Amino acid sequence: MSAQSHDPRPTWPDKTPAGIRACLLPEDLDEFDAEFHQVMSEATASYDLNGVNDFVQRWYPVAVSSLDPQSHRRMLETARKLNAGEHVPTEPWEETRRRLGI
Hints:
By secondary structure, this protein is an all-alpha fold. The chain is 66% helix and 0% strand. The chain is elongated and about 50 Å long. Pfam families: DUF6247.
């Protein structure tokens, strides 16, 4: 019997702070935790959970994207380059569809 590596992250995130956090990559945890503590502090002071709900809605796509770590990191690198004004090769959506046969 061969040894298999085990990824402790879930296969699909629960739409809760704990479920989202379980799927995040290590490099996103500090930012997630800081924002989580901030929105929870604000919710405690205001008795209003809208900020917590917004936080979950913002971070859920990050958790889903993080299920494919290489793709997620490529996307972050592309965003970094775009924000820095660097050239990023692109193609029109019609060309992408043609290339993918869709």
